[in-house]
Amino acid sequence: MLAIQNHRRHALLIAALALTMGWGTAQARITNFGADVNDAIDAGLDYLRNNHYIGASCDWANGLTALALLERRESADFEAHIRGYVGSSDGDQALLRTAVGAMIDKAWTNGFYAYGYGASMMAMSLYARTGGPDVPSTANRTVDETMRRLAQTTMAVVTNGGNNDGFWGYNGAGNDSSTTQFAVGGLAAARGYFLDPDLGNDPALAAQIDAVLARTAAGYHRMMSASNDGYGGRGHGYRTTGYAPSYQQTASALFCQLLGNSTLADPGPADALQWLTERYNYQSIAHAQNSWAASYYYYLFHSSKAYSLIEESNMDPADGGWHPSVLGTLGAVGPRIMHRDPAVDARPAVRGPNLPGPNGGAYYEEESARWYYDYAYTLMTQQAANGYFQSPVGTWNTCSGQAYAILVLQRSVGGACLDSDDDGICDDVDNCPDVVNPEQEDLDLDGVGDACDACPEVPAGDDPSPDLPGCPANRPPVAVCADRVVEADKACLGCASVDDGSFDPDGDPLTVTQVPVCDYPLGVTDVTLTVADAQFADQCVATVTVVDHTPPTVECNTPETITPRDAPICFTATGADNCSVELQVTDYDCWAINGAGKRVDKTGSCVVHFGGGVFCIEDSGGVGDHVEWTLLGTDGSGNATEKTCTVEVVKPHAACNQGVGNGPEACDPGNSNQGDPANTNDEAGGVPGTPGKRGGR
């Protein structure tokens, strides 16, 4: 709904504004066109500053130049909010205070003047609603006192009764559409001020304004007329009677009816918009009678205010009705022209070289054809290097003409307050313009109210999310890796994650993968870690080193004793390791204990040979000899285990045939040859060994 509502200015919100230098954070999308428009606005404001046109030198137009400074956007993003007073620089705040002081003095030392009173109310209302303070003035009056004087005086002199009911003249009652639209614009802005409990706090005065605005809307509807040029719609002329409809005053008629709470479903606004659509022209207003060529920038401003109000309030037309989206689409005929084509337009030279666009086409190829592109592109082509907008047909006044051009680029609604959610807060300063939240709570102080903040406890920051209001943009996750060293398991493999604290700056859930996956073999493996959220991913590379510090185990696999007749006999050692093991005999000895209890060397009588983990005794020497050897098990990582293997040579068991057999079966009760005196040969399977010496193979 379009309404002229208030902004409830809480201390918490003002603190947030001071932090963000703006009135909330919107979707950040800056195109080439948006950046150039923003630069054109800044250049235009620089021209006003450099020529001292913001402050006290523009007479009754001080309100318009101050309004242009207040409505400067916080960035080149098309959806960025206005800076207002609190978001302006110290230097600009000083200029605004000077301008407001001049407006206060002018209001208290001069009688009613519709242009000046209206422009002053537009600027002063927005100044106060965006944190502007009271200022010293010669009149020694406050902003509040002055706003009341301006509003009450304006309503006191409006025409009462008759066909001109709801209209003004220059200095009082009258039938002048041009002055009327300034009076209406000022009252519409003032209404928001008086509804604000922290500012005007005067609902009764706001209700009086409502009634006057409704009368003006009815008056325009009543007094509009058709043109005799063969095109449709009804328009309005300079005065209520005696003048043919003109571009600028039909735009005023549309704007004033909208501020009087009419909609596109009502015949008055629909007729006015049809008149403007069937004669759509952004290059000239010379095609309609009584247009006065110098009012060209005036027309651009007042028509753009109306179109912006309609679009920002999401106002729907009646079925099959008229809407700003139709402007420039009907085909060029007579006074009517078509949209410009961003896909072929060259960049205005004053804004820089005509470079290719992001996709290799025209510099502004990202833009869609629409009325705002037509208006803004045309104005940029008319701007000089010093920021001055050079209307091809001149302007009535340098201050107002320059301000009109800037306000068009800013999509200003002339200080009027749009309240889309009917919560009593103006959209331009409402921290949830589409959600009812009259208290304006904002826990994280990011300028996006809790009622519409998808991340109410996390500030949106300098890079807000395009999808989640009040949240930071979906920034890419950050992969953090570290090299890992792990012990080999029983299968000689290892597993480890190289993730060392990967994170998502927004706290989004992450999917973490690493390639190759576990398990990893002994040694060094390069591993790539990938972390991904729903939109972005990041990678890092690290190593996993699998080491083996576990020594092997070895077994001699020998009996405690053998008999002389058991030789030749071989013993095969075994080893176990989680990776691999190599066995070898590194030394041997043969000894006995004599009757004196001393150890004596018997290697001369013992005959052995060995290789790998196999140790063979060819001749054990005599009873009482001890044959021992050193078994070494080594794995691939160099881990080693030594073990001493020992067998003692003893007399045969008494039940055995001591003269036969050369293996363990010599004393095997199952050997049928044992005890047979005729059996004097070794077992057929015995293989004589190769005699060896101590330490040899």
State the helicity in percent bands. Answer: 25-40%
CATH topology of the domain at 553-667: Immunoglobulin-like
Low-confidence stretches: 1-27, 655-697
CATH architecture of the domain at 553-667: Sandwich
Radius of gyration: 49 Å
**What is the mean predicted local confidence, pLDDT?**
88
The main pleated sheet reads as:
5 strands, mixed
Describe what this molecule looks like in 3D.
The chain has 697 residues and is of the alpha+beta class. Among the domains are: 484-547, no CATH class; 553-667, Sandwich (Immunoglobulin-like). It is 28% helix and 14% strand. It has 13 helices and 18 strands. It has helices at 11-20, 32-50, 62-70, 90-109, 114-129, 143-156, 177-195, 203-223, 247-259, 267-278, 296-312, 371-381, 398-409; strands at 225-226, 234-235, 484-487, 493-494, 511-515, 520-521, 523-532, 537-547, 553-555, 561-562, 569-572, 574-576, 582-593, 599-601, 607-611, 614-619, 626-634, 640-649. Strands 10-18-17-13-14 form a five-stranded mixed sheet, with no helix packed on it. Helix 3 (62-70) packs parallel to helix 13, helix 4 (90-109) packs across helix 5 and helix 9 packs antiparallel against helix 10. The protein is rod-shaped and about 150 Å long. It starts with 10 loop residues before the first helix and ends in a 48-residue tail after the last strand. The relative contact order is 0.09. Residues 1-27 and 655-697 have low confidence and may be disordered.
